[in-house]
Amino acid sequence: MTSFGVMEVISSTLAFFRKSSDQFSTRSFPLCIWGCLVNRGPEHDGLGPPPLRDDGQNLYGFTCMSFADLSKIDRGNRLLLRTFQLAKTCIDHCIPFTIENPASSRAWLTDEMQTLERLGATPQLVHYCQYGKAWKKATVFLGWRVPNFHFKLCTGTSGICSHTGFRHTHLQGTNSSGVFLTLIAQPYPTGLTHTIAATMHQYLQNTPKSGVGAA
Ligand SMILES: [Zn+2]
User: Is 173 strand, coil or helix?
Assistant: First the structure.
């Protein structure tokens, strides 16, 4: 799903939540938000396109950019804001949720995500290589009142994976068919989805319906 598609889904869900807020006292369910919120983008090495943001004053985007780049920045910022609004609405109505993004994402540096952490959301780190992928791809799930997924982490050193014993594949460039490796690496590993589903299933089974999200 593209960032634009994700934003439409989030905006629609947020509108639905706001219209149906009177039902939240009796309905509680977990929600997963995903998507690429704020791309870190390639570091400026003089070879590729310049980055759209930095980690400091320009976290929400450089201002002197082309129209196309300004549009990308605006879309990312709006997606971030909508995600924050949806997550805050979940908190207001005691609905557990989790937001997933790469560990290196600049989204985690923003006021919006740090506000969610101050409101009790906690990050859980996972390495995809531990679930059968050739790439490490450190990824964070920022969850509010979700169980501990006990994600596996790579303990290998010098680029060698502790799970496979081979060197991690770096997600740079394209494969032999010209497809970007970052695109190929987007889907969750199957083992990871099983872990999340099984943990949530057990959590919901052991928690009274009215108690999900309760303090
Ligand atoms: Zn590894």
Answer: coil
